[in-house]
Amino acid sequence: MHPFVFFSLALCSLSIASFAEATKTLRGFSVDLIHRDSPLSPFYNPSLTPSERIRNAALRSISRFNRVAHTLDENKSPETILIPENGEHLVRFHIGTPPVERLAIADTGSNLIWVQCSPCANCFPQDTPLFEPLKSSTFNALSCGSQPCLYFPPHQRLCGNAGECIYGYGYLEKSITGGLLGTETINLGSKVENQTVNFPNSVFGCGLYNNLSFPTSDKVTGLVGLGPGPLSLVSQIGDKIGYKFSYCLLPFTSNSTSKLRFGSEATITGNGVVSTPLIINPNFPTFYFLNLESITIGQKVLQTGQTVGNVIIDSGTMLTYIDQTFYPNFVASLQEALSVEATQDLPFPFNFCFPYRKILAFPDIAFQFTGARVSLNPKNLLFRVEYRNMLCLAVVPSNLSGISIFGSIAQIDFQVEYDLQGKKVSFAPADCTKI
């Protein structure tokens, strides 16, 4: 029996409605983007040292990378990374009528908006009540013939006994998650001219079966997908926001929140703005791809030899991953430029570390994307591991042939704008505490 069939009978009492498009245009708005390890996060553990937080984030990056690798495995069917190990960044939003607050992962590597719902056949623990769709006056179930349901490939959808759309995802490590596809009013909790930003008839996943093979947290109750797929938040409200969003990421030790901006507020202008083509791979519509032509370290220019999208830009992966055939030259050039001796006894999971010392003259290090040179600072590349008194590189080798990942640490103190309609990503250096 299919793993989702057994709970479909519980869905028969939920009504069926057609997909409705939003029409009203907004000038722009923003919401708080909370790093999961910041003092403002419910995940924050004051007993952890900075080095322990760094190590935990690095371990989450490995788990995230493994999921990306599984998704990009050409021998597998495309999958959505639906539950990215509690995520790196969180947002609060409200769903339903009357509105219910949810804390969710904000993820540029996922496409679906989803929350855990009642009646739940199997849900992971959360410290707030499950969302009850039957108590919301604005909830509607979608039929298995509706367009949003058909966005799922055949092996990821079922038709329930009452004709409702049931989605399901499976993972390499035997985690599965699924539920009912429906529409609801979503409120992102910001103000536009003193008006609450509501998005009626937003398609979302009402999670009714979430069997995870890894531990999760009772703080997170769902996910807001910011990917390029048609069911992501950005795509669904795209006509209202000009298909634009941006963020400016703070270090996770900051006592402030980063901002996730939409519409006109997302546009970055002024000196220092550079743009590169945004590539959407139809075979892997979960991710945003760029093309990395070279990396400059001091006077050396290391060519990647790639002419198509070879790097994923991802807010949910802390570390930056470089193609393993390219990585040794990168490390050797960096070691030469810094004049340092590599440490042999490396703290897991890092690949290159050296004894801590103040770097008086940091070389110019830049990632050259097509049309956009992005110069990085030490904070974008190095961590201090205090208990070992060393600096470790926040760049590790990728075992995905021809694919790298430009992670969130590399993006700290940059405004990063995604323009899906203009098909470009723009960067501008900034003090994100002032943006």
From TrEMBL:
Pfam families: TAXi_C, TAXi_N. One of its GO terms (molecular function) is aspartic-type endopeptidase activity. It is found in: Secreted. Residues 89-428 form the Peptidase A1 domain. It comes from the Eukaryota. Residues 1-22 form the signal peptide. One of its GO terms (cellular component) is extracellular region. InterPro entries: Pepsin-like_plant, PEPTIDASE_A1, Peptidase_aspartic_dom_sf, Plant_Aspart_Prot_A1, TAXi_C, TAXi_N. The keyword Metal-binding does not apply. Keywords: Aspartyl protease, Glycoprotein, Hydrolase, Protease, Secreted, Signal. One of its GO terms (biological process) is proteolysis. SUPFAM superfamilies: Acid proteases. Belongs to the peptidase A1 family. This is Aspartic proteinase nepenthesin-2. It comes from Cajanus cajan (Pigeon pea). The lineage of its organism: Eukaryota, Viridiplantae, Streptophyta, Embryophyta, Tracheophyta.
